[in-house]
Amino acid sequence: MNAQTLRRIETARPDAGPCPVIRTERLILRPHRLGDADAIAESFSDFRVTRMLSRVPVPYHRQDALDWLVPQLSGMLPDWALAITTGDDVHIGVVSIELRHGQWHVGYWLNRFYWGRGYMSEATAAAIERFFRRMPETTLYSGVFADNPASLRIQEKLGFRLTGCGDVFCVARNAMVPHIQTVLAPDAFIVPPRR
Fold first, then answer.
1. Which of 98, 107, 114, 155 is deepest in the core (most CB within 10 A)?
2. Are 124 and 165 in contact (CB under 8 A)?
3. Cα-trace Rg, the chain
4. Taking Cα atoms as reference points, which of 168, 167, 164 lies closest to residue 181?
């Protein structure tokens, strides 16, 4: 590929800008650091977390986290991969908005010890709200495994609507898993009330 072709690709690619720092009532969402590798590996040592994600291997090691972090930190990706932290800056999960095959996709996960506190809804809503401010005409896509009703409830609260079902390969389960596809148009986004 020559330099002219690369410039054309870069200018044609939608750009949400650099990964921001977002503060909510209880959380800080920030760009990742290499120092987050241990916390990510620890979260992914729990099969209850990894079984709900399509691309995470089991077992998951610190080196796997570093292999994921390096491209995130390179500045070469258009994606946002926001580390979810509480006031102590400890990494407890991720909200990502990534460009895949020309469409923006929302994904998220949370360390199991932080489930049931509303953190994931708060973090996902804040990331989407900021993304729509930067990319107001963009539709977001997502989905959940059919056996993950808690994740589907988060999406429904934010205005995502169901668009279909299919099967997606889950690396952690080493199997095809029923998957529900969802979509969110900017005008359908529901900003949840502040806690």
1. 155
2. no
3. 17
4. 164
